[in-house]
Amino acid sequence: MGTASVLTQPALVLNSSWLAIHTTTAFDALRLMCNGTAKAVVPENYELHGFESWVSLAVPPDEPAIRTVKLRIRVPEIVVLTQFGGQPNPAASFSRRNLFRRDDNRCQYCGRRPGTKELSIDHVFPRARGGRSSWENCVLACTDCNHRKRDRTPDEAGMRLLKLPVKPRWSPILEVPVGRVRQSWSRFVSDAYWDVKLEP
């Protein structure tokens, strides 16, 4: 892996209370370390290092490194801000992925799990009649149930919901693109995913 691609690898940014607040690139993480804004975390033992001590660390043989003329520098995966840096967003955003998670990839009318391609978002009170896109008015429905319900309420269609749709109690610590989460982040980040917001 070339130095340019190594520098674009993701790094997790923690506030000074060690709560994950966002991600950046390895390049920006090094920049934060250089100007004293952040310190790097060694994932194996959670030691903190400023820029000077970080560049003197040995790079594990199985890890990619940032190469200079004289040095092989370990890629920072986690940095902690030296000043507070704010709080992560505590609320679970109303998104397609979160709706699939809340409803457990299951049709909320018949209970089947036909696969994501056969599931769509149904407005309990139809959108064509003023129903809004919200946690309390949207559920997953399989293709058959969606066709059967059409632009009617469940009562009008003679259908029953498995459970009432509500805003979930869980909330992500941080929203990170799928495939960009590092193993070393597991203590700080859970259930990270794309935040695909749904239209109101």
Describe the structure.
- The chain has 2 domains: 3-89, no CATH class; 96-157, DNA Binding (I), subunit A, CATH 1.10.30.
- The protein has a 5-stranded mixed beta sheet.
- The longest helix has 9 residues, at 26-34.
- The chain is elongated, with a radius of gyration of 23 Å.
- It has 6 helices and 9 strands.
- With 200 residues, the protein is an alpha+beta fold.
- The chain starts with a helix and ends in a 43-residue tail after the last helix.
- Strand 3 and strand 4 form a beta hairpin.
- It has helices at residues 3-7, 26-34, 51-55, 96-102, 143-149, 154-157; strands spanning 10-14, 20-25, 38-41, 48-49, 65-67, 72-74, 78-81, 119-123, 138-142.
Secondary structure class reads alpha+beta
Rg on CA atoms, Å: 23 Å
Low-confidence runs (pLDDT<50, min 5 residues)?
191-198
Tally of structural domains: 2
Instruction: State the total count of DSSP E strands.
Output: 9
Distance between the termini: 43 Å
Beta-strand content estimate: 15-25%
Mean pLDDT: 86
* Largest sheet, strands/sense/barrel: 5 strands, mixed
